[in-house]
Amino acid sequence: MLLNYIKIAWKVLLRHPFYTFITLFGISLTLTVLMVLTSFLDHLIGSHYPENKRDRTLYIMQMRLQDSSRTSNSSGPMSFKFLTDYAKTLKTPERVTITTFINSSNAYVGSQKIKLNTKFTDADFWQVTDFDFLEGKPYNEQNIANGDNVAVITDDLKKQYFENTAEPVVGKDIEIETIHYKIIGVVKASPVTRPFTYADVFFPYTTPKSNYQATGMRGGYVAMILGKNKADLPAIQEEFKSHIDRIPLPGIQDGFKYSVLEVKSVPYLENFLGPLMEGNAGLRTIFFGVITFVLFMLMGLPAINLVNINVSRIMERASEIGIRKAFGAPVRTLVWQFIVENIFITLIGGTIALGLTLIVIRLINTSGMIAYADLTINLNVFIISLIVCLIFGLLSGVLPALRMSKLNIAEALKS
Q1: Which sequence spans correspond to the domains of the chain?
Q2: N or C terminus: which one in the chain shows less Cβ crowding within 10 Å?
């Protein structure tokens, strides 16, 4: 029976090419936007190069200090010493790395200035992340203990700084902010949308200008905590919280008197949504209002338009419906038939949208709009897109099918 419904749907599509074009155009355009958006969200929060272990990693991004009246706040990254004392000492994790966010520097090739994003890290950074080394190797604890002026650069910086990119550059000198560094490795670059790992140049934290000797709690460093497996994350969070709870209160930091100190180790997404979710109610209302509006524009309006088209298409088949009702076809069977037909049409539109999405993603990845972008359609994106297709098919098919089921047999046969 299902196969018969699909055959009927195909013949109906061929019967009215113009309606078919309008229907498939609306479906494919809408689903293309949704698939690209899904791929982008997956690119932002999913486990991808070089943070392939994101599903078992906790992030420490900021410290929040609050006064006793809870009216003034101070928040930001922490010092290397603070994270060494309270994160590096954890026993449960497999590994903990301390790194800066993104710093800015300049290098020169002749008179041409190259703007660089730089990052200071410890040696564990290369174990927590999964960078692909195209040349050489990462710096290690020995380099850090010796205070070696070494650097790991990206393949893109190699192309900008050196004339002959075919030659290996490990062991060569690179001058950044009048300081000379020996290149120890070359890695494939990380996308700019991954601030914990994005940079053009990586230095050991003992190299100049890292400010790792700061003795206060605040500074320019963040941390990533790698669990042995995903199940260990709650235990790691509890252990880290117990370390933070031992900090005496109240206290003074950079002249700010605080009585509340909060530092969280949380999954990646919560790092960025956490401040929003914990903010004032008005900000949360605006955020969810915008999300609702965007979803309505992306799915609601196209679904409404498609409902109108489907109603017109179904009403053209009123005589067919009347005959089938006259011969005893139950309403449930007729409704099910038109829903199946609509889902079939939606899946055709989804197939077209998949091809268009691949083209759009390729254009985004090669355009340079997002540095080192690597948007993909992986299994997660495909499954979500398939679910969206089915929901879209149901949303735009149920109402016309129900309207059809209410047709009077005599009126249907007259049309």
Answers
A1: 2-48+283-414, 68-258
A2: N
